[in-house]
What we know:
The complex is a heterodimer of chains A (43) and B (465).
Chain A: H1 2-22
Chain B: H1 2-19, H2 22-34, H3 36-39, H4 49-64, H5 74-91, H6 96-119, H7 123-151, H8 171-191, H9 199-219, H10 222-235, H11 242-256, H12 262-268, H13 278-296, E1 310-321, E2 324-335, H14 342-385, H15 396-413, H16 423-443
Amino acid sequence: MIDYFAIGLTHLLMALAAWRLVMRDDLDHEIKPDGDPKEPGGA
Amino acid sequence: MLDLALAAFVLGFLALGLRRPFLWVLAYLYIDIVAPQKISYFLLASIPLSLIAFLAAFAGWLLADDKTDSRFTARQGMLLALLIYCGVTTLTADFPVEAADKWAWVWKALVFAIFLPLTLRTRLRIEAAVLFMVLAAGSIVITGAIKTLASGGGYGSLHFFVSDNTGLYEGSIISCVAVAVIPLVLWVARHGTVFPPDKRVRLFGYALVFACLLIPVGTQARTGLLCIGLLGVLSLRSVKNRFLYVGVIAALGLVVVPFLPSTYTERMSTIENHAGDQSASTRLAVWAWTIDYAKDHPLGGGFDSFRSNRLVIQTTDTATAGNTSAVAVNTVEDRGRAFHSSYFEMLGEQGWPGLALWLALQISGLWQMERLRARWGKRALAARGAPGAGPDAQWQAPLATALQQAQFVYLLGSAFVGIAYQPFILMLIGLQCGLWSYLRRIDSPDRAVIRPPLRLTPGAEPLMP
């Protein structure tokens, strides 16, 4: 049960992160060196 | 069910790589840390997952990735030299069969550490690599921490998903790595853009740090306690309010100690009085043997050269009753004991040249991170007041600091555990090389244009560095 929770939670987060990364242009090319208007630093 | 879910996750991950080949690099990080093929019983167990992910990552970089920004740094050269040197000592090893077994995983870890920095060309890639290392290690740490809370753990009795003592699934190793990863967890929680810092991210980050701190309690590895202590001292350099920090740590200590299981406090007390402890005495005997061995074999005896040792260990037990103390001296004979220290592992296996190369690799990392920390720390302070500089000058110095702290913790922990080629730590070194190379590149004066922007936001003016 504990194993399922730990695997489930972290794998869900990794899947979400992978999906978000695929969607971002700045993964493969730096768009500009300072200030990225698309990605605010805070929530 | 778990098998299906893991297989679906891995397949999905690899499929996403078709769209962005860099995802295969992350897939390799994940597979190497979590080893899903070992958790799985049938579906993934029969597939050479690690090899597939590595080949995909390498092919993706070779065929599809832009290589104009990839740089081969001096420390990657050191890794390459270490790889070649280890290859040579494997050919002439004292124990050729055992040495070949160890070589089989060491070369992969070294090759990946050399390769990783070549792919870390953008800020987001560096962050993604840190994030996946944190989450992948987190999957092991979280399960260990919850089991510790539930049962109190015990030396050698805390079970993770995988019960073979390899990779990160060994008590002393995960204790050291879990503490080393704490600075990276905090960095991701504060400076991440994949999961921008909000309440949930911070909550998860702090919970994961707590889980990391519980691992040395659960595994009852004494190394972990020393690592926590060192990290606490190192953090004094970066915290804003030192008095508050020391106060909080002291208060936490007072609150936590009564809740620690008694087996844990008993075991920890043997750090001071190691004469009665066979494990500590064995270590000292192995280390003395290794120094002698290096006199006869200055170029190293190849992997697993410890197998030829024969040790006679004396332990003293002092029992005190009233005013009288009875000292019992026990003599124990032992053979083929492992090095129990990365420094002696390097010396015994790769000789003085190997140890020197390994130390140079480690010390140059500490030095490079210190330089980045100083340079970007100043810039971050300046940027806070500068209009338009925004948060983009703020993440570099903290990441360099986190990577340096992680390495310091590792270097202390590895004094008592033979983890000189631990793949997770080699990835960390790869990250350091990547960060160093990336920041030098964006810092160089001739870099007027970044990349030809593919889909630049309309109206956004390119800024000069």
